[in-house]
TrEMBL record:
EC numbers: 2.7.9.1
Source species: Thalassovita mangrovi
Residues annotated as binding Mg(2+): 714, 738
InterPro entries: ATP_grasp_subdomain_1, PEP-util_enz_mobile_dom, PEP_util_C, Phosphohistidine_dom_sf, Pyruvate_phosphate_dikinase, Pyrv/PenolPyrv_kinase-like_dom, Pyrv_kinase-like_dom_sf
Positions of transmembrane segments: none
NCBIfam families: pyru_phos_dikin
Superkingdom as given in the UniProt entry: Bacteria
Enzyme class: transferase
PEP-utilising enzyme mobile domain sequence ranges: 391-473
Domain PEP-utilising enzyme C-terminal: 487-839
Protein name according to UniProt: Pyruvate, phosphate dikinase
Cofactor: Mg(2+)
């Protein structure tokens, strides 16, 4: 028979493809090819559906030709990618008063009534567009309910309910075709990644009876658990039901496998049950995917209506992909591509149970993934006190500063009013794996009154329990159930496969031994950025640091630095030992000094006491150090050049630690990185002093070692002048946080306030601190890489800004010839998988 390609009866050889008829039509054809008992099906192409939406009438005779005259039909959507959704299925098309009478004879009045009612209701809502509420009062057990519903339909529409099956089918097709072109449907599918002009196919299928005499019913089955991916027969079956009733009426549904808790399909229809398992297994092997089978039982006989990809959590997605590869069904490379790298976050952090109700208080920027609950505290000191009592707490601040580090360590989660993806709270939170929501400016922060007011007027006070969901940016009331992080064998296996294929390195940004340990556990290939200044906030170091800042003479400063030296040395020894011979890239001191000083009068007084200085001296010094625009002021290498003793001390600490850590392990080759460079001369000056310190340490200790000195490219000028900087640097590492800030002239600490408006109005496609701006900042990366490599072909290139962990940035950096990316320890697995996907 010559087939019309737009109205195709599905046979093993019919011309059906996902791109012309949609994924469901193609999948049904595969099931037909496997010789499964699939009811007769006709597929309508995207083009045909478009014409129907435009008002054309399809060739109804051709469409209905394959079906038995007395058959009832159903129509289901078939978009190119099943995840894009589509209008809901309509069942029992073709039922009318005459067939109702026949069905009463064949199946009994109750079943026939239920079927007719289902269709009239669907038709009234989707085709006649009547209010769904009008059926709310219907009691299906009432013998007159059908008459009542038909009368209601006729009253509302002033028309008789159509009796001609061809008319019914045509109207259903029209309503489904038009629903697809509606604005809401389009926006919904675009949000799921569908292109604006995505097509819709429709499949018309003969209804396989599932109501009537003997064991009849419908259900779904899959062979894995959707949450965990473990192999387990899962699903539901409901006698005398249709469609997805078994899922909608879960409490009435039966188990599939024999179960002590109640009756099961296995007991009611053992043969059909065995077949169902066999078919679902066959689908897994031949369709190369874990499938859910939709089925009906007709007097003990099985029909397979459909197969859909099993819905799955990230955890299950990994298990399923690894098990398909281990069973030889798909190659390992393909298993790597089956898991969304971002979804891995769900495995690394606790999450709010997706099935739990959520009482959302407000939404901010999802700055660090994971969820945690705790009592509200408003200061770092209260957080520490709370931790000491063993009470989990959420640290709430307008924004965090380095002084809050200890409070952050003590807290279960952090919430700030201000800030964006690269604010202090966000960067530190991600580094620590601490759930964090920043920029929650829809909440009113009355910090002096220790109170928060939510957009809907609810007041929250210190001690109230809230939950921070750093994965989606929500602040929730109370304590919803959380699910644990789960990195099982399948996760480890997938990661090993990823490392075997990827061709760009992945390091971690780690500041403390604890970070380094996490980095190591996640198999980072070294540390790409150690922000040393964070070490100065630990324990009593802050006081020594402040003494150094307050020193009036070079001699006093030296004395303070001498006390800091052993502390830094000890930190570095620990880092080197944890990283066991892997590269560790240490950035010299970066922030402006005033960050280490107290900001209020009480703090000034305390400091005056600690340093035994008059209060006026302290206030004066703090004022002297304050800057109008500190992020563009005396920080980074500018401080290194003006107060060189700080870098001298750090270089010495690094070299002495190198000698110490190399004693009992592999030789350590430290990397030293100069921040915020904008001119070649800055590098020359620092390099000369660092070389001199190295020479001095070698002579004093009588031991040799090597090291690499590199430059952090964080200013546009450094990228543009990479050609003259590279001869003095073994590596260039692009700090895209500052580079984005400086390229846009956009404060990374303040942009959060208006970023959402900017994105909403389409000024920026995305927050550039979140998604690397490949056009602008990206061009600077390319220019820097090109000019640097031209001057020095063995130049090592990397990215260490927060973008380093995002799959798109990794793709960009790989294409630009970078050697590695460096990101927060908890993003290392995401980066490893994303990098692998680029290489397969
Ligand atoms: C950067 O600017 O990209 C960077 C990594 O440094 P920081 O975030 O510490 O400024
Ligand atoms: Mg920076």
């Amino acid at each position: 028979m010559q087939q019309d390609p737009d109205i195709t009866y599905i046979t093993p050889t019919a011309p059906v493809s996902p791109a012309t008829h949609g994924g469901r039509a193609k999948c049904l054809q595969r099931l037909v090819r496997l010789d499964l008992p699939v009811p007769k099906t006709v597929a309508l192409s995207f083009d045909e559906v478009k014409r129907i939406a435009a008002g054309e009438t399809p060739d109804m005779a051709a469409l209905m030709e394959p079906f038995d005259d007395a058959a009832l039909l159903c129509v289901r959507p078939s978009s190119e990618d099943p995840d894009w959704g589509g209008p809901g299925a309509v069942l029992n098309i073709g039922i009318n008063d005459a067939r109702f009478v026949d069905l009463c004879d064949q199946l009994g009045r109750e079943a026939a009534t239920a079927m007719y009612l289902r269709f009239v209701q669907a038709y009234a809502i989707h085709v006649a567009r009547l209010d769904p509420d009008m059926f709310d009062h219907i009691n299906q057990d009432d013998p007159d309910c059908l008459t009542e519903v038909l009368r209601a339909y006729e009253e509302e529409t002033e028309e008789e309910f159509p009796q001609d099956p061809a008319v019914q089918l045509l109207e259903v097709l029209r309503s489904m075709a038009r629903a697809w072109s509606g604005t809401t449907a389009r926006l919904l599918r675009q949000a799921k990644g569908a292109p604006a002009d995505a097509g819709l196919g429709l499949v018309v299928q003969e209804m396989a009876p599932s109501m009537g005499k003997g064991e009849c019913g419908s259900g779904v089955i899959q062979l894995v658990n959707s949450k965990t991916g473990e192999r387990k027969i899962t699903g539901r079956y409901l006698s005398q039901s249709q469609g997805r009733d078994a899922l909608a009426r879960r409490s009435a549904a039966l188990y599939l496998e024999r179960d002590p808790r109640g009756p099961s399909l296995q007991e009611l229809a053992p043969e059909a049950f065995e077949q169902l398992i066999e078919y679902t297994r066959l689908m897994r092997v031949r369709l190369r995917e874990e499938m859910q089978t939709e089925f009906t039982i007709e007097n003990g006989n099985l029909h397979v209506l459909d197969g859909v990809r099993v819905a799955r959590s990230a955890h299950a997605a990994i298990r399923i992909a690894v098990s398909l590869a281990n069973d030889g069904i798909i190659p390992r490379e393909e298993a790597l591509t089956r898991v969304d790298p971002r979804a891995i976050n769900e495995l690394l952090h606790r999450q709010v149970d997706p099935d739990a109700p959520r009482d959302v208080l407000a939404k901010g920027i999802a700055a660090s993934p994971g969820a945690a609950s705790g009592r509200i505290v408003f200061s770092a000191a209260e957080a520490q006190a709370s931790a000491a009592r063993g009470e989990p707490c959420v640290l709430v601040r307008r924004e965090t500063s380095p002084e809050d580090i200890r409070g952050m360590h003590a807290a279960a989660a952090v919430l700030t009013e201000r800030g964006g993806m690269t604010s202090h709270a966000a960067v530190i939170g991600r580094g620590m794996g601490l759930p964090c929501v920043v920029g929650a400016s829809s909440i009113k922060f009355h910090l002096r009154r220790k109170m928060l007011k939510t957009p809907d007027g609810r007041e929250l006070h210190a001690g109230d329990v809230i939950t921070i969901d750093g994965t989606n940016g929500e602040v929730l009331a109370g304590e919803p159930p959380l699910i644990k992080a789960a990195q099982d064998d399948a996760f480890q296996t997938l990661m090993t496969w990823a490392d075997e294929v990827r061709d760009i390195g992945v390091r971690a940004n780690a500041d403390t031994p604890a970070d380094a340990q996490v980095a190591r556990n996640f198999k980072a290939q070294g540390i790409g950025l150690c922000r040393t200044e964070h070490m100065f906030f630990e324990g009593d170091r802050l006081t020594v640091m402040r003494e150094m800042i307050f020193a009036d003479t070079a001699k006093d400063r030296e004395a303070a630095l001498e006390r800091l030296l052993p502390m830094q040395r000890a930190d570095f020894i620990e880092l080197f030992r944890i990283m066991q011979g892997q590269p560790v890239c240490i950035r010299l001191f970066d922030p402006p000094l005033h960050e280490f000083l107290p900001h209020d009068r009480a703090g000034h007084r305390e400091l005056a006491e600690a340093l035994d200085l008059p209060l006026s001296d302290v206030t004066r010094r703090v004022e002297q150090l304050s800057e109008y625009n500190p992020m563009l002021g005396m920080r980074g290498v500018r401080l290194g050049i003006t107060v060189p003793e700080i870098y001298d001390m750090q270089a010495r600490a690094i070299f002495e630690a190198t000698i110490e850590a190399s004693r009992d392990g592999d030789p350590v080759v430290p990397e030293i990185m100069i921040p915020l460079v904008s001119a070649k001369r800055e590098v020359e000056l620092v390099k000369t002093r660092v070389d001199a310190v190295a020479a001095a340490v070698r002579t004093e200790k009588g031991r040799d070692f090597t090291y690499r000195l590199g430059v952090m490219v964080e200013t546009p000028r450094a990228a543009l002048r990479a050609g003259e900087i590279a001869p003095h640097a073994a590596f260039l590492s692009f700090g895209t946080n500052d580079l984005t800030q400086m390229t846009y002239g956009l404060s990374r600490d303040d942009a959060g306030r208006f970023m959402s408006t900017y994105v909403q109005k389409g000024v920026f496609p995305e927050d550039p601190f979140h998604d690397l701006d490949t056009d602008g900042v990206g061009e600077l990366l390319q220019i820097g890489a090109e000019r640097g490599r031209k001057a020095r072909p063995d130049l090592v290139l990397s990215i260490c800004g927060e973008h380093g962990g995002s799959p798109e940035s990794i793709a960009f950096c790989r294409a630009a010839g970078f050697n590695y990316v460096s990101c927060s320890p908890f993003r290392v697995p995401v980066a490893r998988l994303a990098a692998a996907q680029l290489a397969v």
